[in-house]
Amino acid sequence: MTNTALAGATTTVPAAGPAPLRPRVAQLLAAITVTGGRWSTGRVQTWRRRTGSPVMQRGTARRDLELLARLGHLDTHGPHDGRHYTLRSSR
Predict the structure, then answer these.
(1) pLDDT tens profile 27-58
(2) Could you give the domains of the chain?
(3) Which residues of 51-61 are buried (b: 16+ CB within 10 A; e: fewer)?
């Protein structure tokens, strides 16, 4: 059995490109872009507390930073137990 489109029907094709970031991660990227500097999991947690956001566990902060690095927004520095991230200068 074959499927055929009905006359006049349209099909939508998903937009190409990366999926949008979760609001929490997008806010973090915006903060890093504006303030710059070194960002560690502790700094992310402090920033979230100061902005009135819900308390974030260390593992969540780490995953958010790692995601932004994997997507090419941040550079990773240092050993695993002392890692920090900086905004990638050339995109």
Answers:
(1) 999 999 999 999 999 999 999 999 998 878 99
(2) 23-87 (1.10.10.10)
(3) eeeeebeeeeb
